[in-house]
C-alpha cells in the first residue's frame, strides 16, 4: 500500500495520510470516523492537492493548477507510457503521479465545462499539472489558448 500511495500522491500527502488514525495499521472501515474527513493539503509551485475521505470506503483526490494540451503529427500514433498509441481524438491525458488508467474529471475554472479523461501517459514537463489530448482540450474550450486553469478530481466506481 505504501508504494502505491507514494506513486499516486504528492509526498507531503502520503505522510499526512499515514499519520492519520483512519489509516493506522489494523484500522477497519467501520472504525473510521468523521475525523478522517479533515482535508490534508500539500502544495507545490503552481498547484495544490487535497485528499479527503468522502465516505468510510472512498478517498477523493483533487488538484488545481494549469493544464495544457498536446497533439498533432509529432505525437499522433506514438506509444504512450501505458503502451497504447496516442490518439488525439480520444479523451486521454498525461499526469506525473496519478496511476495509469485513472479516470479524472477536469473542470475549467470559472465555467461549468468539464471532461472526463483517462490517464494513459506521463508529461514531458512538470510546469503544468496535466497535459490533455487535443479532443479533451477542445471539449474544455482551451484549444485556441493552449492552456487553462483547471481542477482535477478522481472518478471512482467506473
CATH class: Mainly Beta
Q: What's the gyration radius in Å? A: 16 Å
Morphology call: globular
Uncertain residue ranges: 1-9, 11-47
Supply the number of helical segments: 3
The spatial strand order of the largest sheet comes to 3-7-4-6-5-8
Order of helices and strands: HHEEEEEEEHE
CATH A-level architecture: Beta Barrel
Biggest sheet record: 6 strands, mixed, barrel
* First-residue to last-residue Cα separation: 21 Å
What proportion of the residues is helical, as a percent range?
10-25%
Number of domains: 1
Quote the beta fraction.
25-35%
- Mean pLDDT across every amino acid position: 73
Query: Which structural class should the secondary elements be placed in?
Result: alpha+beta
- Counting DSSP E segments of at least 2 residues, the number of strands comes to 8
Q: What's the CATH H-level homologous superfamily?
A: RlpA-like domain
CATH fold type = Barwin-like endoglucanases
Amino acid at each position: 500500500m505504501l508504494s502505491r500511495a507514494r506513486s499516486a500522491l504528492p509526498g507531503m500527502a502520503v505522510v499526512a495520510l499515514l499519520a492519520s488514525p483512519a489509516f493506522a495499521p489494523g484500522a477497519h472501515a467501520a472504525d473510521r470516523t468523521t475525523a478522517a474527513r479533515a482535508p490534508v493539503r500539500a502544495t507545490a509551485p503552481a498547484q495544490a492537492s487535497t485528499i479527503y475521505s468522502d465516505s468510510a470506503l472512498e478517498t477523493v483526490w483533487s488538484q488545481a493548477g494549469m493544464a495544457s494540451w498536446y497533439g498533432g503529427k509529432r505525437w499522433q500514433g506514438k506509444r504512450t507510457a501505458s503502451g497504447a498509441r496516442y490518439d488525439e481524438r480520444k479523451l486521454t491525458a498525461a499526469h506525473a503521479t496519478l496511476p495509469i488508467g485513472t479516470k479524472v474529471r477536469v473542470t475549467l475554472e470559472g465555467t461549468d465545462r468539464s471532461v472526463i479523461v483517462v490517464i494513459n501517459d506521463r508529461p514531458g514537463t512538470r510546469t503544468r499539472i496535466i497535459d490533455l489530448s487535443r479532443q479533451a482540450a477542445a471539449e474544455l474550450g482551451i484549444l485556441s489558448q493552449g492552456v487553462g486553469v483547471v481542477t482535477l478530481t478522481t472518478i471512482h466506481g467506473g
